[in-house]
Structure formats: structure tokens, C-alpha cells
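As a point of orientation, let us examine one representative protein, giving the amino acid sequence and C-alpha cells.
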Amino acid sequence: MIAEHDDDAPLVLLANFASPVPASLDARESVREWSAQAPRKIWLARPGDVLVSPVPLPEDFLRYAGLLLRLPHDTVEVVVVPDLPGTGMPEAIRYHGLGETLMSLARRHPGTRLLPLVLDGASVALAAELGIQVFPFASGLPGVGVLSAVDRLNTKTGFRAVAQARGIRMPEGRECRGSELPDAVARMVSRFGRVVVKADRSAGGLGLRFVSRCDPVVAAERDGTGLWVVERCVRHTKEVSVQCVVEAAGPRVVFSGEILTRDGSFTGYRSPLRDVPPSTIAELEGWGLSLGQHLAAHGYAGPYGIDALLDADGTLYATESNVRRTATTTPQAMVTRLSHAAKRPAPAWLIAKRTTRAPHTFSQAVQRLHTTGMAYDPAHGEGVVLYTGSAGRSTGPGMHWRYAVLGHDRPRIEELESELATVLDLDP
């Protein structure tokens, strides 16, 4: 587990999904969709913490999470800062006049620190304004060198450069400007038949395109200045990742697992990693530790991960790094917290996003889980957790649930998920 709390001092949990580090803030629809997941940050909270969220946390979801965590929800202060299109969360805090409120809350307890979802210059500046440190940095505030390393490794080109220097295998690829994109794609397609086109700074599959010989010619980017990567498309059998953390003692592997996607977009995750040779897992985790050494040398502390593809011939290829808290980091922290409380550590678990065919409010969905015996049971350390809620509204056809399934092994969590599909009327 990544230790979000290493002592009794409270945290200001900054759910800054709106940050220029993972993707352009101009991708407003994507930022809005990511921000809607902010309620999951409650699973990191402890008494005295402050959760700064771009969306409200519904009362029914807060009560639900509080019961599972044995955390009275009124012991965590929630400050809602609506997204300001095209800007990061710290700028939105100033725009909405919430700086004084946060400063007052942050100064209630000595030693309070800021824990941003994404470490960026704006969040460090906010911590300075609030007069608090940034967790988990031991003293002071992260410097320019740290921020530069984080920013660079959240780009495709930045990771390719470090991967090459560190001996981390990647698919063959070309970097180019947007004006050069048609030529780069044409040359790569002629060599490999199928390629993947990636914007240099993107997250969650945003803007990902797969191009083959039968597809139309890729157009140049409008202003022609943005960076792109065109890579050989690996015909893979699995998408995997290793998630690590840089601590005072150095980098450490936290967990690894299989990424679930549809059309290049993230839909879920299974852990621990199974049906993969031990040598492949060792190679993946070795890459994670190597990248951590690079980050530690630049003064970084905190979580990061590497995504990779397993080719049909068994060869592993890294595809990107994410130096931030990702879609798996908080759910894994929740799983660890619940399983340790149940004295059943190291469970198998999965998270997923699936659409529903029928309308249910959050409370109705929870009731269904309880009446069918599907709800997470602390006595047995297994079951289903709805870890983001549904923003307090009815979830109808075409809308989705995000859930976690915990069990003692892989077959058990797959069995539970199969039953869940019937209970919540989920699409395949």
C-alpha cells in the first residue's frame, strides 16, 4: 500500500483532476469526466482531513463509505470547488474565493500537509499560499527539478527518452510535430502495417488512434506544433502495469496487475497479475524500480507506474509512465485498507466500469447488493464495493457503475463479478 498517512497529521486531499500534467486542459469533456470520479478520494481520508473536490459528494455515498471505513463522515471536511473550464484546480479555488476557507481548515491542526492527485506547479504554489508542506516530501516544497521530472515523465516522448537510457524495452516508434504527422504515419504504416498514434500528453486513452493500410490518411495537426508519437502496434495478449512508490529508502513495488481496456480506453484492472511467467513479472517490476531510481535522483517522492503490453511471443514492451495517482492507486489503497481491517491481507481484486440497462439510485444499488449477499462483508473480507457512487442521481440505461470486487483468489472475484452483472443489470 502507498502510505497516504505516515503519522497523525491530517491531509488536505486535493482532487486536482484538472491539471495540465496528464493532458491538456482544453480537453474539457475528458476533464469533466475525470473530475466526476473525485468522490473516490474519500477512501483515502482519515478524521481531520479535508477533501477538496470538483464535484459534490452525495450524502448517501458518504454514509456508505464511512460505514465501511468506520469513519464518521462528519469528521472529514469536504470543500467543493467546481471546475473552471481551461484552468487547473488551484486557479478555480482562487476564482471561487475559497482560499481563505482552505487556509482556515489547513491551520486547524499543526503539521497538516497537501496531498495532490497530480503534483504540478500550481498545487505546490497552493501549498505555499496555505503555509503547509506537500506530502510525502520530508521538508520544504518540491523544487523546479522535481516538477520538471514529473512533467516530462507524464509525456510519451519524455518516457521514451528515459526508457531508452534505462534499457526499458519499448515498441519501435517515431516522434514528430503535428505538421509531420501524415508523413510519419505513412512511413510507419508501410513498415509495420498497423500503428498507434498518441498525443504526447494524454491520459486514459484520450486521442489514441489505431491506423492501418486500409484507413484514410491521417491529417496534420491544425497548428502543427504539438508533439506526437507513432508506434508499431503490438499485437498483444495482455495489457499490464506495475505501480510503485518512491519513499525515503528508495523505490518500492506496491502492486502489479492486468489493465482492462476497450478501444484503447481504460475500463478496469485485475490484481495480482496472473497467467504471466514469473520472469515477465520480474522484468516489469525491474523496470518500475529502475524508473523509480531515476525519479529519486531528481528528488521525487510518491507514486508512479509503468504500463506495458505483452506480445503474443511473450515479449514485454513498455508504453508509458504515469507519475501521479492513477485510476488504480486509490482503489488499491481502499482494498488494502478494507482487507487489513478484516485481517485478510493480500486479496485478489478487480475494479471495473460497466454500463447498466436499468435505472437505480445509489441507495437502491447498495440495497440490492445487501439483499443478494453481494455487498462487501468485513467478516469474510470479500464482496462488492461501489467506490465512486453515482453523483446522487438515478443511473439509467447507458450510464455506468464503477465497482471493486474483493475475494480470496482470482476465480472467486470472477465468480462475484459474474453474479454482479445480474444484480445490477450490467451490459457485457
Summary: The mean pLDDT is 93.
